[in-house]
């Protein structure tokens, strides 16, 4: 059994959701946190109805088996079958093997889906609304009534808006409900827009760097095909992509078939991921953040061996060589000039790249040849490589490779860049009144905007104004753990959160007492997706909608965000405009009807038909991004300034920023292997999204804790140098923080790199040492230069043995 710190070491009897909560002090909690070995807090839960033998329950009552889905941001919208009897979920299964549905990709429940029941029925779930009684962050709360909670929210909204203006109101990242079309997070924005607006934020921490960079090549971001077009593809290069764990719509449905059909898969990743073990014919590890050096050398090989697609380049692109450069650019700025070292004297050979990436020159040469000579071939980049401070360059670099080899706009190829499919269809959402506040910040600016808004500049990401009008004074974090867990550089964030004179009022809704929930002033116990109505939407390249039905009644005083928001709206005198008289279910029916009307050709079922059918698959023809632009460029120019694919981007060139080169070529990353800081902190730490949680959601699910324990992956060479053996407790540190976890000494990670799964809960002891293995104690809040986005993955650390394995 893995060690398990449920709710910071509180036993279930001390469940913080209960008014009997004894007020575990920070000191008490910290002691509990460091008393790991004494094991007083391992979860032992008496059996409840939900744990009953399933077959017995099913026999005893008329069991209903309902296809449904979670609305998590987990990459999938799988075929979940909830077994419901007597108002209780008794079992979760998935599409049975004998149920044939030729139209629907097979989406079997992953291990997280199989564990939903434990997530929903766990005794540590929050039960009652609570208000903070200790210092902010201390974790002391007391139970209050819903009337008091909504009165406090309404009165603070009024007071803070009157004092600081609507610009002081902020709704935070909260992705646990973003897989559904309706959420408390969206409805909060609606409520705020009806009462003066709020400070909007932009940038997706998931793939915002890619989304910002891709249009500089193609004019638009979405550049993925539907995956059915890849069935004949002979070679797929998965570049920092791990869909065996991250799911990505119905990717695995197709990849598994392709594998059986003989498609060759190569994976470029510093880690031997589950995708490498399940799909790859070849694994190419490279040092994190050096992807562009590998790409540059591949382009050098392709061009110097005359393997590039000359006709394609000539017809559709600018910037390849000096003859195809835009006006007003001096000599030696083209791709060929860069690769041949015409300006800097450095020829971008495989030997050059080997030193930077640690990929052997011969492997680079072979990879380049394989990619350029297999027609068509698909280079598909995941989002791990772009969650770096060089992420925009990495994302655009892969588009140049796709272009050189003529893999853009062709069936079986892939344009790289942002791989979301442009013909994907969405459900409508709740109607959103216009936000009267016109300025917006990058999500990366929120700590600064809370600390001292006068310091947030346009260079940092401020839009619509040259200065913010107000600090963030009231913050809603609904279904997120982005105050003190998933956000980078936790220590600087919590310093601002702990200062109660900065953000004056923080409302959090969650199912659990997460590290972020501890910073709430008002903490609200939301219903789970099984206790609400919704419509689930797929990711990226998949395209279908699934009804997420309310299957069970909420227990205790749990309420959906929408439900309490109606009460707040009433106290602000705007309930009729806010709700338009609809219950949650009526909103879902309304949204479904709007979706149906907006796509008459799709023949969507009516809502009552949907309740029987459960899902709707959009039957689109196979879709290849940019096919029209390639077939008939005269009439369908690329939406770039030149109308062509821009290998060289004059728009980037004109920014005159050393980290935004016009060719998106290799530039050493801050805190990459070439940084001076590497002398002090010689290991690169990366994180990955593992199979047993969706970000931090379900972190504390005991079934999922058994699947995988939070550990630091370290190569035997690096471990040996530090006297670290399998299972030893190690401390990972840099100037921002210290984490303490067991070591997994494994060749699954390359030398020079260590890795930890993202999403573990932050559990600091009295000295601030994190015992949870939350990598954001160590990650950096540095903003990417073009997107003004996140770089969670770029960090240098040192690792030291702390205790021997027992
Ligand atoms: N099981 C599971 N699935 C999930 C999620 C989850 O938490 N758990 N989260 C969902 C969410 S919100 C998102 S945004 C997506 C994210 O999906 P991704 O961003 O694609 O997932 P990651 O695991 O962060 O990164 C993918 C791979 O990139 C590798 N990598 C890291 N740095 C580099 C680098 O510098 N170069 C290269 N070549 N590779 C690198 C990592 O080792 C990892 O194997 O996944 C979704 N799916
Ligand atoms: N180090 C590192 N950090 C990362 C990343 C990384 O790769 N590495 N990835 C980043 C990415 S891509 C993302 S998307 C973010 C995700 O960061 P967040 O958006 O904060 O997502 P979660 O961590 O899943 O937190 C969601 C919270 O919502 C709660 N929840 C679940 N269901 C419900 C519900 O129905 N109602 C309510 N009210 N709450 C609910 C869960 O218990 C959980 O505490 O993390 C980012 N952080
Ligand atoms: S957690 Fe996500 S990927 Fe797993 S079964 Fe549920 S919907 Fe599918
Ligand atoms: Mo994400």
From TrEMBL:
<dbReference type="Pfam" id="PF01568">
    <property type="entry name" value="Molydop_binding"/>
</dbReference>
<dbReference type="GO" id="GO:0051539">
    <property type="term" value="F:4 iron, 4 sulfur cluster binding"/>
</dbReference>
<keyword id="KW-0411">Iron-sulfur</keyword>
<dbReference type="InterPro" id="IPR006657">
    <property type="entry name" value="MoPterin_dinucl-bd_dom"/>
</dbReference>
<keyword id="KW-0500">Molybdenum</keyword>
<dbReference type="Pfam" id="PF00384">
    <property type="entry name" value="Molybdopterin"/>
</dbReference>
<dbReference type="GO" id="GO:0043546">
    <property type="term" value="F:molybdopterin cofactor binding"/>
</dbReference>
<dbReference type="InterPro" id="IPR006656">
    <property type="entry name" value="Mopterin_OxRdtase"/>
</dbReference>
<dbReference type="InterPro" id="IPR006655">
    <property type="entry name" value="Mopterin_OxRdtase_prok_CS"/>
</dbReference>
<comment type="similarity">
    <text>Belongs to the prokaryotic molybdopterin-containing oxidoreductase family.</text>
</comment>
<dbReference type="GO" id="GO:0009055">
    <property type="term" value="F:electron transfer activity"/>
</dbReference>
<keyword id="KW-0479">Metal-binding</keyword>
<keyword id="KW-0408">Iron</keyword>
<dbReference type="GO" id="GO:0009389">
    <property type="term" value="F:dimethyl sulfoxide reductase activity"/>
</dbReference>
<dbReference type="InterPro" id="IPR011888">
    <property type="entry name" value="Anaer_DMSO_reductase"/>
</dbReference>
<dbReference type="InterPro" id="IPR009010">
    <property type="entry name" value="Asp_de-COase-like_dom_sf"/>
</dbReference>
<dbReference type="GO" id="GO:0030288">
    <property type="term" value="C:outer membrane-bounded periplasmic space"/>
</dbReference>
<dbReference type="InterPro" id="IPR006963">
    <property type="entry name" value="Mopterin_OxRdtase_4Fe-4S_dom"/>
</dbReference>
<dbReference type="InterPro" id="IPR050612">
    <property type="entry name" value="Prok_Mopterin_Oxidored"/>
</dbReference>
<dbReference type="Pfam" id="PF04879">
    <property type="entry name" value="Molybdop_Fe4S4"/>
</dbReference>
<keyword id="KW-0560">Oxidoreductase</keyword>
<dbReference type="GO" id="GO:0009061">
    <property type="term" value="P:anaerobic respiration"/>
</dbReference>
<dbReference type="GO" id="GO:0030151">
    <property type="term" value="F:molybdenum ion binding"/>
</dbReference>
<protein>
    <submittedName>
        <fullName>Molybdopterin-dependent oxidoreductase</fullName>
    </submittedName>
</protein>
<feature type="domain" description="4Fe-4S Mo/W bis-MGD-type">
    <location>
        <begin position="63"/>
        <end position="124"/>
    </location>
</feature>
């Amino acid at each position: 059994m893995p060690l398990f710190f449920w709710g910071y070491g509180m036993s279930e009897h001390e469940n913080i959701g209960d008014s009997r909560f004894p007020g575990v002090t920070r000191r008490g909690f910290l002691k509990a946190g460091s008393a790991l070995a004494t094991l007083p807090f391992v979860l032992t839960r008496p059996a409840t109805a939900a744990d009953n033998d399933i077959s017995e329950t099913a026999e005893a009552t008329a069991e209903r088996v309902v296809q449904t889905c979670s609305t998590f941001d987990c990459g999938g919208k799988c075929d979940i079958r909830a077994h419901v009897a007597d108002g209780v979920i008794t079992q979760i299964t998935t599409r049975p093997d004998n149920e044939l549905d030729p139209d629907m990709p097979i989406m079997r429940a992953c291990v997280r889906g199989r564990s939903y029941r434990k997530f929903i029925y766990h005794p540590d779930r929050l039960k009652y609304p609570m208000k903070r009684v200790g210092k902010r962050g201390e974790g002391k709360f007391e139970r209050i009534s819903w009337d008091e909670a909504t009165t406090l929210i309404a009165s603070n909204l009024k007071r803070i808006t009157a004092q600081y203006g609507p610009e002081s109101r902020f709704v935070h990242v909260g992705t646990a409900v973003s897989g559904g079309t309706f959420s408390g997070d969206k409805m909060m924005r609606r409520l705020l827009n009806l009462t003066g607006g709020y400070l909007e934020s932009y940038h997706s921490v998931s793939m915002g760097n890619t989304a910002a960079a891709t249009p500089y090549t193609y004019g638009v971001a979405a550049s993925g095909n539907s995956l059915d077009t890849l069935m004949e593809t002979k070679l797929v290069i998965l570049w920092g992509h791990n869909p065996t764990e991250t799911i990505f719509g119905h990717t695995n449905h197709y990849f598994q078939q392709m594998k059986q059909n003989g498609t060759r898969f190569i994976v470029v990743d510093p880690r031997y991921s589950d995708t490498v073990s399940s799909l790859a014919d070849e694994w190419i590890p490279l040092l994190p953040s050096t992807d562009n050096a590998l790409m540059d050398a591949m382009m050098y090989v392709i061009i110097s061996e005359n393997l590039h697609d000359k006709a394609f380049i000539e017809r559709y692109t600018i910037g390849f060589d000096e003859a195809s450069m835009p006006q007003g650019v001096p000599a030696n700025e083209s791709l060929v000039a860069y690769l041949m070292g015409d300006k800097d004297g450095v020829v971008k050979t495989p030997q050059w790249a080997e030193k930077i990436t640690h990929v052997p020159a011969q492997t680079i040469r072979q990879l380049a040849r394989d990619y350029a000579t297999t027609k068509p071939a698909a280079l598909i980049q995941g989002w791990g490589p772009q969650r770096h401070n060089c992420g925009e360059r990495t994302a655009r670099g892969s588009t140049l490779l796709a272009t050189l080899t003529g893999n853009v706009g062709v069936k079986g190829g892939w344009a790289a860049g942002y791989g979301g499919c442009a013909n994907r269809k969405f459900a409508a959402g709740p109607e959103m009144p216009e936000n009267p506040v016109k300025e917006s910040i990058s999500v990366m600016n929120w700590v600064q905007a809370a600390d001292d808004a006068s310091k947030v500049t346009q260079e940092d990401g401020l839009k619509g104004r040259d200065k913010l009008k107000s600090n963030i004074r009231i913050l809603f974090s609904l279904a997120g753990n982005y105050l003190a867990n998933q956000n980078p550089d936790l220590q600087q964030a919590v310093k601002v959160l702990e200062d109660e004179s900065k953000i004056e009022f923080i409302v959090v809704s969650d199912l659990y007492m997460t590290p972020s929930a501890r910073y709430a002033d008002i903490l609200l116990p939301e219903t789970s997706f099984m206790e609400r109505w919704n419509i689930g939407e797929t990711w990226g390249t998949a395209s279908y909608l699934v009804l997420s039905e309310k299957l069970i009644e909420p227990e205790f005083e749990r309420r959906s965000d929408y439900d309490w928001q109606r009460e707040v709206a009433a106290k602000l005198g705007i309930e009729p405009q806010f709700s338009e008289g609809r219950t949650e279910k009526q909103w879902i029916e309304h949204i479904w009807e709007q979706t149906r009307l907006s796509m008459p050709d799709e023949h969507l079922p009516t809502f009552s038909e949907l309740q029987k059918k459960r899902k709707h698959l959009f039957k689109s023809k196979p879709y290849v991004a940019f096919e029209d632009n390639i077939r008939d460029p005269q009439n369908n120019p690329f939406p770039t300034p030149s109308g062509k694919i821009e290998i060289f981007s004059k728009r980037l060139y004109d920014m005159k920023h050393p980290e935004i080169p016009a060719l998106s070529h290799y530039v050493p990353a801050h805190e990459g292997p070439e940084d001076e800081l590497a002398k002090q902190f010689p290991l690169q730490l990366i994180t990955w999204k593992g199979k047993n949680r969706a970000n931090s959601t379900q972190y504390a699910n005991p079934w999922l804790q058994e699947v995988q324990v939070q550990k630091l992956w370290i190569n035997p060479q690096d471990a040996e140098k530090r006297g670290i053996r399998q299972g030893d407790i190690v401390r990972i540190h840099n100037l921002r923080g210290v984490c303490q976890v067991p070591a997994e000494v494994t060749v699954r990670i390359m030398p020079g790199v260590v890795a930890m799964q993202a999403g573990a809960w932050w559990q600091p002891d009295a000295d601030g040492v994190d015992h949870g293995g939350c990598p954001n104690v160590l990650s950096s809040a540095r903003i990417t230069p073009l997107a003004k986005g996140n770089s969670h993955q770029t960090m240098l650390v040192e690792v030291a043995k702390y205790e021997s394995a027992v």
